[in-house]
Write a structure and sequence with these properties.
The complex is a heterodimer.
Chain A: H1 2-21, H2 23-45, E1 47-48, E2 51-52, H3 58-71, H4 73-80, H5 85-114, H6 116-121, H7 127-160, H8 166-192, H9 196-218, H10 223-236, H11 241-253, H12 257-285
Antiparallel strand pairs in A: 1-2
Helix pairs in contact in A: 1-7, 2-5, 2-7, 3-4, 5-7, 5-8, 5-9, 7-8, 8-9, 8-11, 8-12, 9-10, 11-12
Chain B: H1 2-19, E1 27-37, E2 42-47, E3 53-57, E4 62-74, E5 79-90, E6 93-98, E7 105-107, E8 110-117, E9 125-129, H2 130-177, H3 183-191, E10 204-206, E11 212-217, E12 222-230, E13 241-246, E14 254-260, E15 268-270, E16 276-279, E17 285-296, H4 297-304, E18 315-322, E19 327-332, E20 335-341, E21 343-349, E22 357-361, E23 375-380, E24 388-394, E25 406-410, H5 417-424, H6 426-443
Parallel strand pairs in B: 3-13, 16-25
Antiparallel strand pairs in B: 1-2, 1-4, 4-5, 4-11, 6-7, 6-12, 8-9, 8-10, 8-11, 12-13, 14-15, 14-17, 17-18, 17-23, 19-20, 19-24, 21-22, 21-23, 24-25
Classes of the chains: A mainly alpha, B alpha+beta.
Chain lengths: 289, 444
């Protein structure tokens, strides 16, 4: 156990270093921050004497109309009631989340395929310590980016006389834990498959499936489709990280902070379960595809 | 000639298109006509053939009738509508209500009326059933009869007054021409008073509707099923529906209606203390605190309009009524806290060719004499020099109302925003520095 922990630490340190010296992470961060800049700037341009009106700025009009069409006016009202930052947070976080998750899945699959992982296991490392090191790297990179994003949005807020509301901070916290579960599913997809392409396909398929199920019950569609989505959602929700994200934020709305933290704990439990299944899978299947 | 032969039918076809535009297809359908209480008001909707669920608020009286009407889809507003002018056949019978019990509850049609009595609060809805309904209707009729009698009497008195006035004027003129003393007659003329105009009864905001029969559903929260049985006891085909009865989740919060001085037709609502009102500071604001209740978005929308869309996973705040005799506390970072009271205002059209309105203080003695104020609100002066204005509402006893804190932020155009663009590309700069250092390290 100590050997595995040591191997994990050494590998994690190495992978963090690799991430910090490669351009991908910085490019993903820049994409996220530039998107955030445009969303905040667009919000400021969409303000008149009666408040925020997304129809005043073309880019926001497109976003606003699409969101109203899919989720309803109440959703959009709530999304922008504290300002632009809640929406901006999710949009700006997505590039880095995708980059970290997909690159880890790709690398896992590739190193398994070419035998690099097998080579590692001749030493003190095993498959579990390998994927745990990747997870630590992703968690740390996510935490760094969330801090960068928070600082950036705070500065943007001060410069434009905007404030970051309570929903923003709660979403920021829950996004961190949500991303851990998503990375865990990435590891699970990699353990389950033989190469990078299929690992990415399984991972994206899983995430897309969770999104569709959540959106299906969320979206304003007619009775039959929504009922079907609700039934599916009820079955699938227990393994979906998005369910616990929605669960936690739902309690924030009514001021029940205790249940918000329960949501976080449940996300961590789900991550642990997925990682444990991954551990069993890689143990059974081996590290060479 | 050949061209003409083609062109004429084409033109005729085009004209036909203009003359006989799309007429929506009307279909005879069995519908449930619903008069549901939405927390502040009674509003009508209907459940057509394909609408499998009816949504109602719990523990209030809701009125349901069944009828055959023409139903059509109106594409312009994307709504289903009924055409009751051509077909409107109400059915008499009983309704079977299936709840948690094994046996259905049989509900008969009950005579009812509903009305809203004027009071300090806007919510004074009353429902009268059976004999009470008849009594309420008779009371209203009596009130109106008395009013019309007094109007009739007024016109008689007015005619007599005018005749008297006319006669006196003629007599005075004649006597003056004859050089006689008219002082007594002029005194009589001065003492002559016009009869007072009778006042329209103000007892009701919404008067009772004529007594009619409906199935009255006042149910606790839950899911039910209903079906309609004709007077012969036969089940009406296609009459089965699900009923979802829901209640408010919360009601303790205060909302704020915000009316900008230059766009009084476009008020915005601030529903939670966390919500921030961002404005450009070009005009003053007029605010009105209101009580609100929180409902499921889908349920509430469907209750108001059965074919409406809504989001089942979201809750929405619904404005119920204005807080009576409230006070609003205004705090500014650079000034002392100020308490403002509700004041009457009048909306005037902007002078000149430009469209627009402006809100001015109501002047009952001056230029707004004999007019009613357009709105009662709290005036919040706004200046471009300020960055934030905080509001908090109090009730009539001076107690702070829960969740009534709001902040208004004034956004003025600034070039400082560009600094954030520079910050946004900082990671790229870091990347270039890291890569350059590594490159130098390995090349040296």
């Amino acid at each position: 156990m100590n050997q595995r922990a040591h191997a994990t630490t050494v590998l994690a340190r190495r992978r963090i270093f690799e991430t910090l010296i490669s351009p991908g992470y910085y490019v993903a961060q820049t994409i996220g921050l530039v998107l955030a800049y445009f969303l905040v700037a667009g919000f400021v341009r969409s303000i008149d004497s009666s408040g925020f009106d997304y129809q005043l700025y073309p880019a926001y009009e497109l976003i606003g109309r699409s969101l109203v069409g899919a989720f309803g006016a109440t959703f959009v009202d709530k999304l922008f009631s504290e300002g632009p930052f809640l929406f901006t947070l999710y949009v700006a976080f997505l590039p880095v989340l995708l980059y970290l998750a997909v690159s880890s899945v790709f690398r896992f699959g590739l190193e398994k395929k070419v035998g690099a992982l097998e080579l590692l296991t001749y030493g003190p490392a095993d498959g579990t310590s390998y994927f745990l090191s990747g997870l630590i790297k992703d968690i740390l990179a996510t935490a760094i980016y969330l801090v960068v994003l928070l600082v950036f949005l705070l500065v943007a807020g001060v410069l434009n006389n905007l404030v970051l509301g309570p929903s923003f901070y709660y979403s920021l916290i829950i996004l961190f834990f949500l991303s851990i579960t998503i990375y865990a599913y990435g590891i699970f997809a990699s353990c389950l498959t033989d190469n990078s392409a299929s690992a990415i396909a399984v991972f994206l398929g899983l995430i897309l499936f969770f999104i569709i199920i959540l959106m299906g019950s969320f979206t304003i569609v007619s009775g039959y489709v929504r009922n079907l989505a609700s039934v599916f959602a009820w079955i699938i929700k227990w393994i979906s990280p998005l369910f616990y994200w929605d669960f936690a934020l739902g309690f924030v709305e009514v001021g029940n902070w205790g249940m918000f933290f329960v949501g976080i704990v449940l996300l961590l439990v789900l991550s642990a379960v997925v990682l444990f299944i991954s551990h069993l899978t890689i143990k059974a299947r081996g590290v060479r595809s | 000639m050949k061209l003409l032969r083609i062109a004429i039918p084409l033109i005729l076809l085009l004209c036909a298109g203009l003359l006989f535009g799309d007429v929506p297809v009307r279909e005879e359908q069995f519908i449930y006509s619903i008069l549901a209480f939405n927390g502040k008001d009674y509003a009508g909707t209907f459940a057509r053939k394909d609408a499998d669920t009816i949504y109602l608020v719990a523990d209030v009286d809701n009125f349901i009738t069944v009828r055959n009407v023409f139903v059509y889809f109106w594409p312009i507003t994307q709504e289903w509508k009924t055409d009751t002018s051509a077909l409107n056949i109400p059915f008499q019978g009983t309704m079977e209500l299936y709840g948690k019990q094994d046996q259905p509850e049989s509900i008969g049609m009950t005579p009812y009326t509903y009305y809203n009595i004027r009071g300090e609060y806007e919510l004074n809805w009353k429902v009268a059933k059976e004999q009470e309904a008849e009594a309420a209707w008779q009371d209203y009729q009596g009130l109106m009869d008395a009013y019309w009698q007094s109007v009739s009497k007024y016109y008689e008195q007015r005619a007599a007054y005018e005749a008297m006035l006319n006669q006196l004027t003629v007599t005075i003129t004649k006597m003056r021409d004859e050089g006689k003393d008219v002082t007594a007659l002029i005194d009589g003329l001065k003492e002559l008073k016009a009869p007072p105009e009778p006042q329209y009864p103000t007892k009701y905001i919404v008067p009772p509707v004529p007594v009619q029969k409906a199935f009255i559903l006042n149910l606790p929260v839950g899911e039910y099923r209903i079906r309609f049985l004709t007077e012969e006891g036969k089940i009406m085909e296609g009459s089965e529906r699900r009923i979802v009865v829901f209640k408010k989740r919360r009601a303790e919060a205060i909302g704020l209606e915000v009316i900008p001085g230059d766009k009084w037709t476009r008020p915005v609502e601030s529903k939670t203390p966390a919500s921030v009102l961002y404005i450009d500071g070009s005009t003053d604001l007029y605010v009105r605190p209101f009580y609100q209740q929180e409902y499921n978005d889908l349920f509430y929308e469907k209750m108001r309009k059965n074919d409406a869309k809504g989001n089942p996973t979201l809750m929405k705040w619904v404005r119920i009524q204005q807080v009576p005799k409230a006070r609003v506390e205004i705090s500014r970072p650079s000034a002392e806290t100020q308490m403002v009271m509700e004041e009457p205002f009048y909306v005037e059209q902007v002078k000149g060719a430009a469209l627009g309105y402006q809100i001015v203080p109501f002047d009952p003695e001056g230029k707004h004499k004999d007019r009613e104020p357009s709105l009662l609100a709290f005036h919040v002066p706004i200046s471009n020099d300020e960055r934030v204005v905080r509001l908090r509402s109090q009730d009539k006893d001076g107690e702070y109302l829960p969740s009534s804190e709001r902040q208004i932020r004034i956004i003025t155009p600034t070039r400082l925003g560009l600094i954030s663009l520079i910050l946004a590309i900082l990671p790229l700069v870091v990347m270039i520095i890291v890569m350059a250092r590594r490159s130098r390290r390995y090349t040296s």
